[in-house]
Amino acid sequence: MADTADVIIVGAGIIGLSIAHQLLRRAKLRILVLEKGAALGEGSTGASSAVCRFRYTYDEMVCLARDGVAAYRNWSEFLGEAETTAGYQRLGSLWFTPLGGDWARGEAVRLRRLGVAAEVLDDVELSERYPALNTCLQAPDLESGAEHSCGPGGGRHLFEPDAGYVNPMDAANDLLRAVKAKGASVRFNTKVARVRARSGKASGVELATGEIVDSPVVINAAGPWCNGLSAPLRAAGAWEFTPTRIQIVHVDCPPGMRSRLPICADLTSGIYFREQLGSGQIIVGSLLESDEREAVADADDFARHHDNEFARLKLHALQHRLPGLRISSVRGYSGLYMVNRKDVHPVVGQTHVDGFYLVNGCSGHGFKLAPALGGMIARAITGVRDGFDTDVDPAFLAVNRTPLQLDLKSAMA
Ligand SMILES: Cc1cc2nc3c(=O)[nH]c(=O)nc-3n(C[C@H](O)[C@H](O)[C@H](O)COP(=O)(O)OP(=O)(O)OC[C@H]3O[C@@H](n4cnc5c(N)ncnc54)[C@H](O)[C@@H]3O)c2cc1C
């Protein structure tokens, strides 16, 4: 292995690969991506629902989502390759909330001002477009399963027509191919034991084998394993990143509903779901902060199955929203979010160690944001602008920022 590089990226998840690609879009650099796994998909990226939607509390996050998703929507141009595997599945995203029509109208105006397409659907319009969806805004009692009579509706629903998803492994594989074609070296089965620094400056990494690789720039894109690399240098400051177990269940989508569902964020009962086109499945996850609290001590050792109780509650909520759904078999799994406990937003940028950068704590947002965050870091390192860059001020997510103020500290923040 070459024992020097211009930039070392630790981790070949969607974040590490996006950074590598964004660097190579603007500069000819010797980039070394080090990945401890034998293949892609070891961490959060392999488990991701990869929903690309836009509404966030902070305008800056809306813009980062808009700019990240723009890369997925123009994937071939972004990659600079005519042939790609990943394709953006534009399903639209519909919000069911008990917050009322004024909320939906206000958010639609805000999104449009920020360059994101948004509509407000009333119950009639919603039912015409998506007849399988129940418009009721009163959640059933999921715990007791008590008899529930659906309310009369009358809601106004925020709809983001450009929302969608990408198969996360297809996207990662496309990026891997693109960065290798542009000369990056990507090493699997290569664990970084520590980041090296001299006189306050990054100087490279030491591998688990004891081998040293020198570089003036090291980027921690190690997802749920990031703490082990930053802690010895106290590089994350006061931020607390917690690997957190996140469950997903999936069920078969009846043929009559296939290709006829938007992505749904159902805040009345705390679930999101989307169809997995091609496989005929519906993937269901949680929007509740209470489901983002299961800290995992060792990111290599956690329960990878789903819990029956989780499935019971979430599928009850799903059946309320899709009354025509008959569930025959339930499958599921768990992955890890790396949650930034202070404000559930990513921490991105250079640390107090010159040349050592973090892109950590991406929680449930990291897939959609990856191209934009990659561009932010690449621009900070090279000083070169690119057509896919975000215009969000890097100070918004910087390592030395103060935590953002939020009512909801979950993936829906
Ligand atoms: C169940 C689930 C659902 C999600 N749904 C969505 C969603 O709908 N929309 C969305 O935008 N985001 C979603 N996310 C979040 C998103 O997937 C993550 O934020 C994103 O994948 C993080 O990417 P990453 O590259 O930082 O981390 P990872 O994908 O975990 O990659 C980190 C890589 O670093 C490697 N590594 C770690 N330590 C070392 C080391 N010391 N040496 C070498 N290699 C190392 C690991 O093996 C791993 O491959 C979801 C996540 C999960 C788990």
List keywords for this structure.
eight-stranded mixed beta sheet; FAD/NAD(P)-binding domain; globular; 413 residues; six-stranded mixed beta sheet; 24% strand; D-Amino Acid Oxidase, Chain A, domain 2; binds flavin-adenine dinucleotide; alpha+beta
Structure, explained:
This protein has 413 residues and is an alpha+beta fold. The chain has two domains: 7-86 and 167-237 and 342-397, FAD/NAD(P)-binding domain (3-Layer(bba) Sandwich); 93-161 and 242-340, D-Amino Acid Oxidase, Chain A, domain 2 (2-Layer Sandwich), CATH 3.30.9. Helix content is 26%, strand content 24%. The protein has ten helices and 20 strands. The protein has helices at 14-26, 44-47, 59-73, 75-79, 101-113, 123-129, 168-181, 227-230, 308-321, 366-382, and strands at 7-10, 31-34, 51-52, 89-90, 93-96, 119-122, 156-160, 164-165, 185-187, 192-198, 201-207, 212-214, 218-220, 241-252, 263-266, 271-276, 281-286, 330-340, 347-350, 356-360. The strands form four sheets. It has an eight-stranded mixed beta sheet with strand order 6-7-5-15-16-17-14-18, with helices on both faces. It has a six-stranded mixed beta sheet with strand order 9-2-1-13-20-19, covered by helices on one side. Strands 3-8-4 form a three-stranded antiparallel beta sheet, with no helix packed on it. Helix 1 (14-26) packs parallel to helix 7 (168-181), helix 1 runs parallel beside helix 10 (366-382) and helix 3 (59-73) crosses helix 10 (366-382). 51% of the residues are buried. The model has no long low-confidence stretch (mean pLDDT 96). Flavin-adenine dinucleotide (FAD) binds next to helix 1, helix 2, strand 14, strand 18 and helix 10.
